[in-house]
Write a structure and sequence with these properties.
About 45% of the residues lie in helices and about 20% in strands. The chain is an alpha+beta fold. The chain has one domain.
Length: about 210
């Protein structure tokens, strides 16, 4: 996550209007991203299955030293694969930026191909939250309109497995409950502000009609 005193990158700040305040900004948690988005947990599960299969298929004729010799190549391969996954995670996490302002959300992700998404709260139909047991989680945004977000260009900042209707997502962020609370407050304030402006406009129109009459 970004430190609280470190502002978002300049290219992100440049698209934020001057009358908006940055309420929160951050990036995915590397550990949770590696486990959930890159599938590191399946690698651990594979090693566990291989170990159990090796143990039970040779049960009764297997000493600890022989068992370790048999699973050693699998352990090495899994470790190398895990290192590669973590390196990929670092390359994906570092350029990713999530921003919540008083009127919109902004997503920047991608290494070679930069994906930038700027969505006012007015264009968000629904917000979903997924919480993991370590306090990290995903916040997904269902958008209004027929404009389709490219899934692979937006990865990893899209909702997993939503290929037909991709939803932009804050992936694997720390303290997701705190972030979602700030997001909800910002969205609600924006809705209240718009409704207040609309009521004032209607009231002004009614007063003008009465004066004309």
């Amino acid at each position: 996550m970004y430190k609280i005193d470190k502002p978002p990158p300049k290219d992100v700040l440049s698209i934020i209007p001057e009358d908006e305040n940055v309420i929160w900004h951050g990036r995915p948690d590397l550990r949770r991203f590696s486990i959930s988005a890159l599938g590191l947990r399946y690698l651990i599960l594979y090693l566990l299955v291989v170990s159990l299969t090796t143990f039970f298929s040779n049960y009764g004729n297997l000493s600890l030293s022989i068992f370790l010799q048999m699973i050693f190549p699998y352990v090495i391969c899994c470790c190398l694969a895990a290192i590669i996954m973590v390196m990929i995670g670092i390359l994906q996490v570092i350029p990713t930026v999530y921003v919540i302002t008083s009127k919109r959300i902004i997503i920047k992700s991608g290494l070679a191909l930069i994906f930038m998404l700027n969505v006012p709260f007015d264009k968000v139909a629904n917000i979903d939250k997924k919480v993991f047991n370590d306090g990290c989680g995903d916040i997904s945004f269902k958008l209004i309109g027929n404009k389709r977000i490219p899934f692979f260009a937006g990865w990893p900042s899209v909702r997993p497995w939503y290929f037909n209707n991709p939803e932009p997502t804050f992936r694997c962020i720390s303290d997701v409950d705190v972030v979602s609370f700030k997001l909800a407050n910002a969205a609600q304030s924006r809705i209240t502000e718009k409704h207040g402006a609309g009521n004032k406009s209607q009231q002004s129109g009614s007063d003008n009609k009465e004066m004309t009459a």
